[in-house]
């Protein structure tokens, strides 16, 4: 099986196990909220809305719900560094010195075939 499929399978299994753990924890600790209980009294809105109530609902104003976004203040040093910065490229890294040895060890059959073709 390829590594991608193995990772996907592990991710799916992990998600299933996490959900089963949550279900088990929920089954162990169940509470009932009644209208006379404190939690029931604190609930301002009903758990379900009618179609008319959903259609009459107005969308939330995002500027109120998330607040005002403040721009980041740059220090004088940061501004100077930003203005003085020039785009550049860096050189590539050195090749792996042990690449041939690893290839001989990991792909011995292919390496032998390649050596015979070069003769």
TrEMBL record:
- Write the record's keywords in alphabetical order, separated by commas: Signal
* Entry keyword annotation includes Signal: yes
User: Where in the sequence is the signal peptide annotated?
Assistant: 1-26
| Compositionally biased region (Basic and acidic residues) | 101-119
Q: Where is this region: Disordered?
A: 76-119
This protein is called DUF4148 domain-containing protein
Q: Which species?
A: Pseudoduganella buxea
């Amino acid at each position: 099986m390829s590594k991608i499929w193995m990772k996907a399978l592990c991710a799916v299994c992990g998600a299933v196990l996490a959900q089963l753990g949550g279900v088990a924890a929920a089954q162990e600790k169940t509470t009932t909220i009644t209208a006379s209980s404190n939690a029931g009294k604190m609930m301002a809105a009903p758990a379900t809305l009618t179609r008319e109530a959903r259609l009459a609902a107005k969308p939330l104003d995002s500027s109120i719900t998330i607040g005002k976004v403040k721009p980041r203040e740059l220090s004088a040093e940061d501004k100077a560094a930003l203005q003085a910065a020039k785009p550049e490229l860096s050189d590539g890294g050195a090749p792996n010195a042990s690449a041939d040895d690893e290839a001989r060890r990991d792909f011995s059959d292919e390496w032998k075939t390649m050596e015979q073709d070069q003769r």
